[in-house]
Amino acid sequence: MLNSPLPRDPIAQAREQWVAHGWASEANAMAAITAVMRTASIFLQRADAILKPHGLTFARFEVLALLGFSKRGSLPMSHASELLQVHATSLTNSVDRLEATGLVQRVAHPTDGRTRLLELTAQGLEVLDAARTDLNAQLFAQSDLEAADATDLFEILSRFRRASGDFL
Amino acid sequence: MLNSPLPRDPIAQAREQWVAHGWASEANAMAAITAVMRTASIFLQRADAILKPHGLTFARFEVLALLGFSKRGSLPMSHASELLQVHATSLTNSVDRLEATGLVQRVAHPTDGRTRLLELTAQGLEVLDAARTDLNAQLFAQSDLEAADATDLFEILSRFRRASGDFL
DNA sequence: TCCAAACCCTTGGAAGTCCAAGTATATTGT
DNA sequence: ACAATATACTTGGACTTCCAAGGGTTTGGA
Known about the structure:
The structure is a homodimer of 168-residue chains.
Chain A (H helix, E strand, L loop, with lengths): L9 H11 L3 H28 L6 H12 L4 E3 H8 L3 H13 L3 E5 L7 E5 L1 H19 L6 H17 L5
Antiparallel strand pairs in A: 1-3, 2-3
Helix pairs in contact in A: 1-2, 2-6, 3-6, 4-5
Chain A binds a DNA duplex (30 and 30 nucleotides) through helix 2 and helix 5.
């Protein structure tokens, strides 16, 4: 995947270029946003590598984890896609694969013919538990984020996400 | 794209579930990492929407911007993919599209037959300037990140990226 | 010298994301 | 009651990312 570490942070370099070209007032936001994207891609790669032996990706893990927390054990697709904050089409894609491997079932809604309910299967629950254990041990417990940075990061991003209309 | 704001932050909810199930020590990293991914996806959608009228995506914009800053005006693919921190195959994909629309050219390296140099065309330079102006005005200058948060965010992510081996 | 190892780039395939459009079911307003 | 509107989900297409594998070119050690 990644080569050896670069001698100089390329995002910091881009930031300097921004300043040098007269866009100083946008430089910090540019650097922060670019760094967020890069960081997300690093974490996604790590998560997917950890989940691969479980036959999962991070996207599919999130679906399982959400179902595992739902009181009833079942959730309409629409509700799940809202909570996961992905498009309905992305969820359709993930669920197709989860259903094909027997981790999740689509069941008819008792009263609304449009709605399909997602349910974890017994096997889905097993895979979820094993995958979550691994993610906790190998990703979240060794995230390369210092404790204070993790909380600060979450707070900054919460302010941003609220300002951007993610939630109230 | 996005529905109406949710009444409650779903990542904060997941964090509570993590604590409630006995994974309290991993909860903050889980929440921070999930928030980074969500934030990246929000910014990527915004950037792509702004760049669409220019016939660009953020991935392709980054290639143009990098070439625009290079002293020579040309850069080997390998060097570009290192600086952009994406796989060589991803760059091949972007450059194929940039070349197809005439914004970039692949030229032979004078002495190394393996290497292909990327060059901005005149049209590529024009598109870059226009796209960058729009991104600065519509994304970076109105990022929903407060000034202090943008700098803190960049610093936290720089520490993380260094610790993760992104750069020295 | 010359063959093996390293390097640069591309192809093909799997997966994710989104959007636009389509189908089917519910709800609403007249 | 019934047509118009809204909701729920799926399909198809464009794009990105990665990985695994291949083809060419260069370099370096025996």
